[in-house]
Amino acid sequence: MRKTKPDAFSGFTGKIGKTGFYKRVLNGVEVIQQCPTRKTNKRNKPLPAQNLRFRKAVRAAALALADPEIRAVYTRVATGTCSANSMYIKDYFHPAVISGVDVSGYEGQRGFRFRITVENIVPVRTVTVSIVSGTGRILESGTAGPAKLDDEWVYETESFISDLNGAMLQVTAVDYPGHSATRSIPL
Length: 187
Known about the structure:
Blueprint lengths: L1 E2 L9 E4 L2 E8 L2 E6 L14 H16 L3 H10 L6 H10 L3 E6 L10 E7 L6 E7 L5 E6 L1 E2 L5 E5 L11 E7 L5 E7 L1
Antiparallel strand pairs: 1-4, 2-3, 3-4, 5-6, 6-10, 7-8, 7-11, 9-10, 11-12
Helix pairs in contact: 1-3, 2-3
């Protein structure tokens, strides 16, 4: 970039060889700059996997955010310069994590409340709970309901289970982009 004296190149635009130049005022000083050149993409190889995943995320966000209910969920958590669209894309790349399940004090009684903590950018869509016997048979299954906090869910048992020998509690959380996280805890 070359500084010019006032009126030395008044109204200067043009080419010197194959390079184009123009005059403009930058911070109160007239300067002569080279014209920007258009870069051509000479990529012949396929896009990297991350670029393809990002394209899928953008398409998924456009489809999902057409639903007003889902848009409201993501708009509620969007802060600052983030939009609902960017929050959905972020959520697409960060699946939910089941960080805690409180099974302490459970002895097979009816009406026991399991507290489940699921970490995600937005509250997950559903949390399902199953109590599975040591032989793999499902003894009880159902959907957990949201608690007072956004990342907590509660499941209340509906039946009495007398034999908990080898039984497991299986928790599955599904977020809005459709990713699921599963965790098994011995009872």
